[in-house]
Design a protein that fits this description.
Its cofactor is [3Fe-4S] cluster. This protein is α+β, with helices and mostly antiparallel strands. It contains two helices and four strands; from the N terminus they run βαββαβ. The model has no long low-confidence stretch (mean pLDDT 95). Bound molecules: iron/sulfur cluster (SF4).
């Protein structure tokens, strides 16, 4: 599983960081970035929850 954050859509709510801090982080600009694009199997469920809960639908699974 790979994830990608559209930094043009992200509004920095931080929901993804709360749900899956091992995969998502905030940049100095206050937007989310996937710190690992290849999500380990044990974190896939949390990463999918982050995708579903993002208010801006800024996270994609690839
Ligand atoms: S939940 Fe969505 S909008 Fe909020 S920081 Fe994460 S990617 Fe950005």
């Amino acid at each position: 599983m790979k994830v990608w954050v559209d930094d043009g859509t992200c509004r920095g709510h931080g929901m993804c960081l709360t749900l899956c801090p091992e995969v998502f982080s905030l940049t100095d600009d206050g937007y989310s970035v996937a710190i690992t694009s290849d999500v380990p199997t044990e974190l896939e469920e949390a990463a999918r929850e982050a995708i579903e809960c993002c208010p801006e639908q800024a996270i994609s699974e690839r």
